[in-house]
Amino acid sequence: MTILNDDEFKAAQKWSVITGRTATRTSVALNPFSVFDIAGSPSAGTLAIGNTANGVSHTKATAGYPTFPDAPAGKGWYLAKVNGQSSVAGNRDIYDFVYSCGAHAFNANQALTSQPSIDDRLRVAPPWAANMVARAGDLCTNGSAPIKLYLATTGGVAAASGGPTTTGSAITDNTVTWKYLGNGLNYSDLEIFVEAVTAGTLNQAVNVTYSTMGDDGTTLTASRTTGAVGVGAALIVGRMYRLPLQAGDKNPALLTNVAGSVASAGTFNVHLARKLTQMEAYVSPFASKFGYDQTGLIYVPNNAALRDVHTPVSTATMTLPMTLTLAMG
Q1: Residue 257 CB neighbours (<10 A)
Q2: In 3-state terms, what secondary structure has residue 216?
Q3: What is the DSSP code string of 239-275?
């Protein structure tokens, strides 16, 4: 299902996801920092991922991530509103952390194998479901290699199995008619992050080798590299930084090797994270608040691992809560 107009948004079931920390950590002004392991709501997670060879795909069930109910089959959650306050000014970015590996040693040269699939986390609309009720204008994703995006052009009730899988413009699914729109997965919003787990020395450099996904959703281009990138200083716990893609690249889809250099101590994680939204954090008693016209009603999968990344203007991260409102469509 899809939220098609303002009246449907007002009538939609809502769920509030609250994220905030009760303590701060030392930061570097105007640089992103993790607060994942700091007490608050949700409870603190563990910074070290605990898997360097394959990596893991965290979900909302993993300690440290906020929980929310599963949307029923044929429906989905959409990010509708964001509001909150902060102890210091800055930005608070909300990501779905779809893949993580670490904690890697400062001098790691680790090949990544047998990685978990992240396809379900990259869907742009809810999965098709048996006997789902669809209206004209609703979107769903279905099929494989690649997962595809479909638009209902005629409403009705879907079949008991199968659903649309081809690339036609008028696909019959019991009493629903679907139109193929294209690839149902979005790789373009993925960013590669380094996250310091223990304090480092010198200018820790990290070089990640990765594969990109073609716009067709099936073609992988391997052996791309970020180059060895650092921040020009020793990493402190929680500091994060984005790794640039090789010139001309987009759609990072698979990490294949992590290499550390220069530093003589310290450990770090590497993440693939999908950015959902960003909030300018105002200092209490002022508050930031924006609605679906700014969030874009982006689809949030049932198993999303939502994390609040802080970029403060000061040398301490933020406290006070932020509320994410999910609307069901």
Answers
A1: 16
A2: coil
A3: BEEEEPPPTT---EEEEEEEEEES-SS-EEEEEEEEE
Q: How confident is the model at residue 287 (pLDDT cuts 50, 70, 90)?
A: confident
Asked if residue 44 lies in contact with residue 287, where contact means CB atoms within 8 angstroms, the answer is: no
**CA pair distance 55, 77, nearest whole angstrom:** 27
pTM of the model: 0.95
Helices (H), the chain: 6-11, 292-295
Mean pLDDT of the chain: 95
In one-letter notation, the amino acid at residue 30 is L
The rounded distance, in Å, linking the Cα atoms of 223 and 219 is 13
pLDDT-based confidence at 177, cuts 50/70/90? Answer: very high
Nearest 5 degrees, angle CA 49-CA 50-CA 51?
A: 100
**23 in Cβ contact with 234 (< 8 Å):** no
Q: At 95, which helix (H) or strand (E)?
A: strand 90-105
Residue 96's identity, in one-letter code, is D
Token output for 254: 């698979």
Tokens of 97: 């952390």
Give SS3 for 209.
Answer: strand
314: part of which helix (H) or strand (E)? none
